Amino acid sequence: MLSPKGCTQFADQIQAGIDEAGRGCLAGPVVAGAVILPPDFDLPGLTDSKKLSSRRRAVLAQAIKAQAVSWALGFSWPGEIDRINILQATLAAMARALDALTVCPGLVLVDGNQRFPSSLPQMTVVGGDALHPCISAASILAKTFRDDLLLCMDQRYPGYGFAVHKGYGTKAHLDALRSLGPSPAHRISFRGVGPVPREAQLWLPGI
Question: Where, by residue number, does a divalent metal cation bind (predicted)?
């Protein structure tokens, strides 16, 4: 069996969990997490990241990183999302997260109902972030990283409220878009965003 390019060892009995954060946002990347947990992990309260407070997620994220056999993140930035659509960009981010693991699992558990390109066996699980600890852990790592990134984007692109809504299409965010127009961090192909002004395009990062 072929292994993802980042793997340095193969473990047939080990499962990896994959989940994403930010798929429905108007701005910022979609971030995928991949986590392999040891059989004896000790992570009280581990569940779907959306059911946890930001403080609890932050505590669990550090514990997950400390205990995981391997963990990694994959990204798809707004330019790619606009170019290939959000579904394909999400699957690409998942594939990148899996490729970045240093241990190759025998089975990949994917939250949702969509498989992504990989040579490793996959099983999709709707609601898997509340059912499988490795998917819950992947969900937490993806969301905590993305939320922290949006705090940085709030400083780089002030006025949109990224620190509050983390890029989701809240009324305040849509009002800011109507007033300011989109920033280079926005997904131009998403409804309610619109084109980036020509002068702002000069500041697009390499995405």
Answer: 19-20, 111
| Helix (H/G/I), strand (E/B), else coil: 200 | helix
Q: Which of 32, 43, 39, 34 is closest to 14 using CA atoms?
A: 39
**Encoded tokens for 64:** 């997950």
How many residues are given for the chain?
207
What b-and-e string marks burial along 135-156, b requiring 16 or more CB atoms within 10 Å of the CB?
A: bbbbbbbbbbbbbebbeebbee
> Does 147 appear as a known binding residue?
no
Tell which residue, 137, 23, 28, 138, has the closest CA to residue 91: 23
Q: What is the pLDDT of residue 196?
A: 61
pLDDT in tens, 114-146: 999 999 999 999 999 999 999 999 999 999 999
**Strand runs labelled E in 47-170:** 70-76, 103-111, 122-125
What tokens were used for 162? Answer: 């990224």
How many helices and strands, by DSSP H and E, does the chain display? 7, 5
Tokens describing residue 161: 């409220």
List average pLDDT for each run of 10 residues in the chain, which is 207 residues long.
Answer: 53 87 97 97 91 94 97 98 97 98 96 94 95 97 98 97 97 96 96 70 42
Strands (E), the chain: 9-21, 30-36, 70-76, 103-111, 122-125
Question: Which residue type occupies 134?
Answer: C
